[in-house]
Structures are given as structure tokens and as C-alpha cells.
């Protein structure tokens, strides 16, 4: 501002003035106009220099950003190539692409995909390491732990699968897929009592697997009782259970199977008839095939009664055929099995009919039936 006033004053009074500057031994003499022009040039130079510095810094920053974007695009390309190669079953190409981004952030999806590649290549240990790494990432933790549980169960390592469950969060443990694998692990590990305790709360999550698991858990539990305390204690234990439990078909099937395993066929027959007074149940009817008594009249009577109302029921015909065969009523067994084979041609019925024909010294027919049963197996 002072410089402006000096210039304007000099112009008004027609006096250019005189300026003398001494600085560290240097002396500069100039008039006011020269000073003004010099100051303007210095100021403009400083502004130009400042602009140049800022432009250089911005250009450098822009280059780093550009290079960073270029690197990220390359990683995205490798990620896409890896997934596409996996979908195309080109596992070596998938491994090559995904391996280059193993340590990059893709929410663990790259690790899960890479683990799947290793499974297809037969490198299970490498897959486990990748799953374990993915399990440490929040977004892929559940998926990775599910893979680890499945792998443990496939390799008969039920206790390892149960250990994985203990490391899950409470929220993850309530996931349906976790519950299904958890139940399988408890069954495979023979933890029958714990499984029985948890099953009621898991009924919705297990869906159609609930009844078979209930039967399996009960069978395991009853087997433990029978092996440690005997068949009599097994029956006492059954009678002491709540009525709702004893009315459950899965529990009934497990109990009857243990009676049969203990050689108590009469008690098993009695229970089968008692528990199916209102009609046949798919979990109980197959157990008639295992009854081995010389005169299972009660069982035969109830099955024949059902067949009067449903004479094309292959399960009932098969059960009657097996029951009659074990009772040495070969004529009834042959009639029932013939009808069952015509309706379904099932392997178990074919084999029993082959045994029956062999006992009648009809070797040609027996051989033909055996061959048919083998074809069914294949």
C-alpha cells in the first residue's frame, strides 16, 4: 500500500523521488518508479515460483494416485480371471491368478476361491491353510469355518469339527448350516446324550434331518445303556422316559432296534404292534423285516390287515415277505415277495427271493435273481 502511495505521489507532484537501500555492504539507488517496477517483478516471480512448486507437487501426487489405480485395476483383473478359470474348471490357471492376490483385500473371497481350487487339485492341506486364513477375516469367517467343519467331518475328525464350533461366535452358532454340521459332528463323535439334549432346540434348523438324527441319537444312547447295563435296564429306562418321548416314532424305532440287537425279538414284535395300532409308520414298518420268530402271529395279522386296505403297498409286502421267511413260512414269503418285486424290483427283496429259491434247490432262478440284485447295486 505504501508503494502505491509513493508512485501516485510521484506522478501527481512530478517528482520521481529517490530511494537508497544498503544491505550487507551492498548499496542500491533508484527512483520511486524503478522501485515499484522492481517490486512488481519480484512479487510476480515469487507467485510464479509458488505456482510451479504447487503444480509439481500436484503432478507427483496425481502420478501416485494414477499408479495406485492402475495396480488396483490389475488386481481386480486377476481376481476376475481367477473366478472365471475356477468356473471353467481350469484349476491351474485359477491358482496362478488367485495366488498373485492372496494377500490383497477382497473380503476373503479370493481366499475361499483359492481354497476351492486347491481342493480340486487334491491339495487339501493347502486348502485348510487358506480356509484358516479366511476365517480371520470377519466377512468370510463363517464361510471359512463351515468349509473347515465339512473337511474335518469328511476325514472322520469329528472332534476337530467340534473344536471349530467352540471358536465360533454365538451368532454364528445359531446359523442353520452350522447346526447341521454340529449335529453331525456330535453323532460321529458318539456324544449321544449331548445330541439328544440339543435336538429339540434344533428342530426347525434341521428340518427333514431332525427325525433321522433323533432316531440315531436315541439308538446310540440306548446302545450305551444296553451294553453297560443290559437289556432289562434298557426296558426300564424306556418306561421311565416321558410319555411324549415314548410316543415319538423316531424314539420308538431306536428302542425297538435295540431290543432286536439284544435278541429280544418277542418284545420287539409286541412294541411294533403296540405302537402302530392307528396305522403303519414308515420308520417302524421296515423293522418287521428284522423280527425272527417261529410264529410272529401278531405282526403278521396287523400287516395283512393293512394290506387289505392297500394291497399294492410295496413296503408292507416286503415286510410281510421277510417276516414270513424268518418264520419259515416259505409259501407266504414267496407270494409276498413276488408281488413286491413286481411292484418295485428292489435289491433287498431280490436277494431274499434268491435265497428262498436256493433253499428250494432252484439254482437257475436263484442265480438270475442274484444277478438282478447285483445290477441294482451297480
The run of helices and strands is HEEHHHHHHHHHHHHHHHHHHH
Give the C-alpha Rg: 43 Å
Mean pLDDT: 85
**Which structural category do the helix and sheet elements fall into?**
mainly alpha
Spatial strand arrangement across the major sheet: 1-2
In percent terms, what proportion of residues is strand?
A: under 5%
Number of helices: 20
> How many strand elements?
2
Keywords: Cell inner membrane, Cell membrane, Membrane, Porphyrin biosynthesis, Transmembrane, Transmembrane helix
Function: Involved in a late step of protoheme IX synthesis.
Main location: membrane
Organism: Paraglaciecola hydrolytica
Question: How would you characterize the overall build of this protein?
Answer:
The protein is mainly alpha-helical and 378 residues long. Among the domains are: 1-46, no CATH class; 92-189, Serine Threonine Protein Phosphatase 5, Tetratricopeptide repeat. The protein is 74% helix and 3% strand. The chain is built from 20 helices and 2 strands. It has helices spanning 2-13, 32-87, 91-99, 109-120, 124-134, 141-154, 158-166, 170-173, 176-188, 192-206, 210-229, 231-240, 243-246, 249-261, 265-274, 297-309, 314-326, 330-344, 347-359, 363-377; strands spanning 19-23, 26-30. The protein has a two-stranded antiparallel ribbon. A hairpin with a 2-residue loop joins β1 and β2. α4 packs antiparallel against α5 (124-134), α6 (141-154) packs antiparallel against α7 (158-166) and α9 packs antiparallel against α10 (192-206). It starts with a helix and ends with a helix. The model is unreliable at 2-15 (pLDDT under 50).
